[in-house]
Amino acid sequence: MILHNCAFRLLLIFSIFLGYCFSVNPVSNEYNCLVNLVENFNLLKFTKDNSTGGYINICSTTDIVCYGNYISKLVLNGGGSENILSPSNFSDCFPMMTELVVNNLKVSPDFIYYKYSNTQTIRYSNITGIVGGITQPLPPYRVIQIFSNDFKDTTFRMEFINKQTYSLDFQNGPYLYLNSDGANLDRASILANFNIYAHNLVDLSNYKSFSTVQLLFSSTFNYSTTPHIKTITTNQLIIYDDINPGTIDIDQFLFDDTRINYFSLASKLKSPSQYIDMASFKNHTYSTFSLYPGPLFHINGSIPLIPPKNLQLSFFSGNLTVFPNNLQLSQYVTTNFQNSIKTSQFPKFLGSGGSYDFRGSSYTGTIDESWCTTEIAISPGNLTGEIPSCYACYFNVTSIKSYSKLTAKSMAQRFYGNNFSNYNIKSCTTFRPRVELINDGVFNKVMVTGNDIGFDVSLWMINSTIQLNSTTYVINENGKNYTATMVGDSVNLKDVEYFSVLFTIPNNVLYTFPSNYNIPPILKSVLVKSSGNQIQVSGTHFSSYLEFTSQQIQIVNVGNCSTITSSDFFGAQCTMEGGKLLSTSNSTVPLYIITIDKDSFNVKAYIKIEANFNNDQVCPNDCSTSVGVNSICDLSSGTCKCLPGFFGNDCLGIECKAPGCFGNSYCNTTIGQCVCNSSSQGSNCSLPFIQCPIYNTLPCNGGSNTCNNQTGVCNCGPSNQGDDCSLPVIECDPSDCNSNGVCDRIKGQCICKEYVWAGPTCLIPYHYITSVIPSTTKGGVASFIGFFGDIHNNLSITIGNLPCLILHNSSSIINCTAPAGVGNKIVIVIQNNITYSYDKYQYINLNNQTCPNKCSNQGTCNTTIGQCKCNNGFNGVDCSGVINTGGVNGGGGSNSDGDKGGNGNPTTDTGVDPGSGNTTITNQEINFQIFFKSLYEIDINGNIVESYSLQNSWTSNSTSGENETVYTLSQTIRNNCTIVSKIEEITNRNGKEFTFADTTFNLQYGSIKFSIGIYNYKYKNNLNTLKLELVSSVDQSISDNNECNKKETSLDTINNLDGESTFNYIKISKNNKILEGRFINKLISDGKATYLLTSMKPESKDSISIS
């Protein structure tokens, strides 16, 4: 076996030797080609054998690399030849050449465009003979490095770059004009590295494979092209613009909308007029920004940049006189100000950030501890005093493993070259760690907090062997709080009570920590020392006194053991306050209680005080302290002293708190609760238990449904309903029925608000008519005004059961062609499967309107307006009234009192009661009364849904003029609805003409006109209507013996139901006194005239109700 191993190794070594040390010259063909090149072009660095005249050691030169017997890399260094190198010089030569380097030679114009078969890399430096620069596509080399002064100020068209070229480097210039027209339109180029000296920038958005772009700007660079920086997608962009005169704004280079990871800019920038807030950039990808800005780039000595929180910023060789100590940066980034800060005083730290490099400037003063939340490098300088312990404690660490990118990895090196007094720190007394196990179900993470815990989590070892990952840890607060993961796939601290951590640096100390900080100290023994004033307590979960928890030991009624001489996780030793000696236990006081307070925990035990006596007897089940404070353990005897409410040798039994468990129930001493039988419940089983309905063998169908066992009623969950919760809830869509109805969750159907909304989702409104413009009796266009919505499925209208052809319809009006007809008709409008009827359609009779009672044959009928012109001696709407012959009134007059009885007629008095709204007309002993009694809201079925009494609620105002007296009454009912009534007495002897609702009429002298307006009434349903009730009555105030005054009251009505007149009439007669009334069968609704229906009925033998 040994011989075989040796043979194998020797064979391996021999094979390697054969592969790389075969010869110093190539094969003869390549040798001859090379000799021709050397001699024709005076190439340097080739050695000639004077004895043979040949060249030797070719493959061992620094410019030739051979593979086998063939040249793989060829470097041609011109020595001053005027001969022109062309592709023909390589004909049938160097078939295995992968790299060609040509320096300082004249070449033919086609030389740079030629592709050598296996060559992947070409490097042409200081070549001449390239007339007019690059004028045609370059060959498909992977790497091209080229320099020729012949390119100076020519235009380089990027479309000449072959798509297989990975790297293109215009080494050392000269400066070119760039043109990207037509370049890489298919975006197939693999160009990753691009280095060029440029007079301008162009659109490079078609190149998506850039890794590094390096641009060197000329002194005549066209800065108007710098916005093309936004078209560059690259990992690194490096711009050198340091030959400009210092008049360039940083805005020429720094843009929000960029796709650049690392950006390095060297440019002499002028001072900006305002701070550049990079933190406000929203669409950039900057992660690192390195800036060499020159001496002018500052604002009054301050850094003029507001960097984003996560930006790695380097500000080199600047001229800042205001120390940048207030930047708000991430704890994971490094910020570099080398050779940029010109102020000498080193201030306090007011900002945030992972690490800062302040080297290259000489500072004075001291380092404040405020810097302990970041890593710093600050050498050399003239700083004095002590280095803060957060740094000095770690001078023994040669390489800090943190997220910092400071080049000085040794903590000590970061501070060398100053005049600090504590370079040689011996021990770290300020180190105070606290470790908490993260309970995330995996238990492989810890959170380390404390004072002077450093910046390197790899210095801590869990249980002395388990490392923490220094590449994935989380910085909660740099230098003070970290979360780190243990190294190892299966490593965790699950199910451990406590664990230790070895802090190798600064003090190489081992501390123990609990896995759960919510556990009180576990006391196992108490030893009274022989001195009589010292106590040693032992157990677990005590305080290590690292300033994170407070701990106090006391003996009840004796004193505090306040001087802690030593303490750790497993116990503590203390001395009684003031050195007080403990009294020995005796028959009077056999035991004392010792208490240990740790944070919010309080632990007690009985002990016997006797010198060198160790109270270490174990109590049964620790007296159940794991489930609560049930008792106190007597450590001197190992017995439990139960607290009230507990019993048993370990005090685990719990007495039931309820006063007795009623009936057949019993006390469960494990939980201290009564266990009731099947018919009772409650804390003491005194309440009855009623079973709820069972479905599928489960009360209330189980699931999320609950049963109230005191009432036996199910409380169903959101998806069930019914007495036993067995019915599913079927939600409507939408569930709220668009707020226009309620959902029947048994059927899953919307029940819409009646007569308001319809449709499956309650989005179709009920339509209604508010006013009508009717046709004539011959038919024609009729207009219906109201609300008809925006949906008109299957719209149809009938008038008196005859169809009305639709001409136009919208949400507010419908026009149709009405059939011929007379009188009042019912209109039916049907759409969206909703039927609406309207009973106030009155045909317009333009031909012959009839007069009431044909004017009683005592007058002439005006058939145009349907009013009588009475003959002399007669009056009234139907000329049935006989004028007192003793008077002097002309024909058609009235029995008024305008002449104060001078014509022989009795005087008529008119009065209005402003409170009740009653209008009284008195002639001798006869009193006629007229008043508005009530207002009703009527639903579509004719039912009264709201009623308002109009009597005794009026306020009044009256005005009088030469020709009229007007009483205005008003009152307010529900929701600011105003009702205004006007009562006008005609005092002009010639009468007065009125127009209302497109109807013109005359009132005679002595007449009284009533009108009423109802404003802002809010219907309970849009389909409802209003009904107004007016009462007219007559009575006799006194009796006399005149036979003419003993006639009964006569009530007569003329109701115009056939539409042959514009008016309806009433006539009330008593004792030859006649009160006549006309009612216009129109009203104005929402500003439009429409017809109304009037009904009249006697209320008594002396009164009539009109509505």
Automatic annotation (TrEMBL):
<keyword id="KW-0245">EGF-like domain</keyword>
<feature type="compositionally biased region" description="Polar residues">
    <location>
        <begin position="906"/>
        <end position="917"/>
    </location>
</feature>
<keyword id="KW-1015">Disulfide bond</keyword>
<feature type="disulfide bond">
    <location>
        <begin position="870"/>
        <end position="879"/>
    </location>
</feature>
<keyword id="KW-0732">Signal</keyword>
<dbReference type="InterPro" id="IPR013111">
    <property type="entry name" value="EGF_extracell"/>
</dbReference>
<feature type="signal peptide">
    <location>
        <begin position="1"/>
        <end position="23"/>
    </location>
</feature>
<dbReference type="InterPro" id="IPR057015">
    <property type="entry name" value="B-sand_ComC_2nd"/>
</dbReference>
<dbReference type="Pfam" id="PF00053">
    <property type="entry name" value="EGF_laminin"/>
</dbReference>
<dbReference type="InterPro" id="IPR057013">
    <property type="entry name" value="LRR_ComC"/>
</dbReference>
<dbReference type="Pfam" id="PF24143">
    <property type="entry name" value="Beta-sand_ComC_2nd"/>
</dbReference>
<dbReference type="InterPro" id="IPR054484">
    <property type="entry name" value="ComC_SSD"/>
</dbReference>
<dbReference type="InterPro" id="IPR014756">
    <property type="entry name" value="Ig_E-set"/>
</dbReference>
<feature type="disulfide bond">
    <location>
        <begin position="851"/>
        <end position="861"/>
    </location>
</feature>
<dbReference type="InterPro" id="IPR057014">
    <property type="entry name" value="B-sand_ComC_1st"/>
</dbReference>
<dbReference type="InterPro" id="IPR053331">
    <property type="entry name" value="EGF-like_comC"/>
</dbReference>
<dbReference type="Pfam" id="PF24142">
    <property type="entry name" value="Beta-sand_ComC_1st"/>
</dbReference>
<feature type="domain" description="EGF-like">
    <location>
        <begin position="847"/>
        <end position="880"/>
    </location>
</feature>
<dbReference type="Pfam" id="PF07974">
    <property type="entry name" value="EGF_2"/>
</dbReference>
<feature type="region of interest" description="Disordered">
    <location>
        <begin position="890"/>
        <end position="917"/>
    </location>
</feature>
<feature type="domain" description="EGF-like">
    <location>
        <begin position="728"/>
        <end position="763"/>
    </location>
</feature>
<dbReference type="InterPro" id="IPR002049">
    <property type="entry name" value="LE_dom"/>
</dbReference>
<protein>
    <recommendedName>
        <fullName>EGF-like domain-containing protein</fullName>
    </recommendedName>
</protein>
<dbReference type="Pfam" id="PF22933">
    <property type="entry name" value="ComC_SSD"/>
</dbReference>
<feature type="domain" description="EGF-like">
    <location>
        <begin position="652"/>
        <end position="686"/>
    </location>
</feature>
<feature type="disulfide bond">
    <location>
        <begin position="676"/>
        <end position="685"/>
    </location>
</feature>
<dbReference type="Pfam" id="PF24141">
    <property type="entry name" value="LRR_ComC"/>
</dbReference>
<dbReference type="InterPro" id="IPR000742">
    <property type="entry name" value="EGF"/>
</dbReference>
